[in-house]
TrEMBL record:
Family note: Belongs to the HMG-CoA lyase family.
Molecular functions per Gene Ontology: hydroxymethylglutaryl-CoA lyase activity; metal ion binding
Keywords, sorted A to Z: Lyase, Metal-binding
UniProt name for this protein: Hydroxymethylglutaryl-CoA lyase
Entry annotated with the keyword Electron transport: no
Alphabetical list of PROSITE patterns matching this protein: PYR_CT
């Protein structure tokens, strides 16, 4: 019962770069986005309209929002009304809001308790839907929190339901610090799919403990066919200590292709995007597929 096609939502330009200490040149970001699109990626988190004081790496957001070619869904993150207002000054038509299930994490990330974030975002989501925006809700700390530890499945499912009732088109359910294991992935995604069968649901795994590919396989079995991944395995949230990179796009695409599941992504072209970004980032890119690329 595995799907024949899977949609990859590339989060490299956003999650991948937000945690980089030295500023990645705006032109390099733009070329990265273009090469990712050229590899066949159709949905991408391009950047985020967050406070430049909090996340200096995203301070050039307004300059790069329009980089991806037509035919690619460009998604921009916004933490609050101010962020959404900034998106509405552009021609971008997809917004991702983000909230943590864990209250402590939400305060560290957005400077507000989860409940206050939801009170601010619900009317904003409804306004966006009236204007025909595509709205994605990223649910952080869906499994574990770096401050509060294990998160109850029922709390994550409740927050998913709250967003569904607020009218979002898609949920992206995240293992922010890469602690989940496949049994937890299968269990949570089965419940979310059962509760909200009509909603698009993506899984967002960080690969801190190398369980992400196994978690993806478990999520596939629970009926998930959308995955957030990051080229080169870059990524991590600056306000989640211990968070390392997202699961690498190339490793996920390789695995799915070998399983006969189509993603529409060309691995050779994806490698060109990673070749471009590798010298611009501080950490070595040592993902499985990329290390072997060009050697066989
Ligand atoms: P704050 O300091 O409480 O903000 O930060 P404020 O409302 O008090 O405003 C203070 C100043 O910031 C004001 O400017 C505002 O205009 C400005 P001033 O009057 O001093 O000149 N401001 C903004 N500027 C630009 N864009 C905005 C914005 N909002 C206020 N949107 C705030 C609150 C939410 C802004 C801050 O906490 C913030 O920017 N947080 C973002 C944190 C972040 O980007 N985290 C990473 C993304 S989430 C993630 O990675 C997880 C995910 O991958 C899933 C997973 O793996 O879990 C999605
Ligand atoms: Mg993330």
């Amino acid at each position: 019962n595995l799907p024949k096609n899977v949609t990859i939502i590339e989060v490299g330009p956003r999650d991948g770069l937000q945690n980089e200490q030295s500023f990645v040149d705006t032109d390099v970001k733009k070329e990265f986005i273009r090469l990712l699109a050229a590899s066949g990626i159709k949905e991408m988190e391009i950047t985020s309209f967050v406070s430049p004081k909090w996340v200096p790496q995203m301070r050039d957001a307004a300059e790069i929002v329009h980089t991806a070619p037509d035919g690619v869904r460009s998604i921009v993150l916004a933490p609050n009304r101010r962020g959404v207002d900034r998106v509405r000054e552009t021609s971008v038509k997809s917004v991702a809001v983000f909230v943590g299930v864990s209250n402590t994490f939400n305060k560290k990330n957005i400077n507000k308790p989860t409940k206050e974030s939801m009170e601010e975002l619900k009317p904003v989501i409804s306004e966006l839907k009236k204007k025909n925006y595509f709205v994605r809700a990223c649910i952080s700390t869906a499994f574990y929190c770096p401050y509060e530890g294990k998160i109850a499945e029922s709390d994550t499912v409740s927050l998913c339901r709250e967003f569904a009732e607020a009218g979002v088109d898609e949920l992206s359910v995240a293992d922010t610090i890469g602690m989940a294991v496949p049994t937890e992935s299968f269990s949570l995604f089965s419940k979310v799919k059962k509760e909200l069968p009509e909603l698009m649901v993506a899984a967002h795994f960080h690969d801190t403990r190398k369980t992400a590919l196994a978690n993806i396989f478990a999520a596939l079995q629970a009926g998930i066919d959308r995955f957030d991944t990051s080229a080169g395995g870059l990524g991590g949230c600056p306000f989640a200590p211990g968070a390392t990179g997202n699961v690498a796009t190339e490793d996920v695409v390789y695995m799915l292709q070998r399983m006969g599941i189509d993603t529409g992504i060309d691995l050779d072209k994806l490698t060109e995007a990673i070749d471009l970004i590798a010298p611009a980032v501080s950490r070595p890119i040592n993902t499985g597929y990329y290390q072997l690329a060009g050697t066989s």
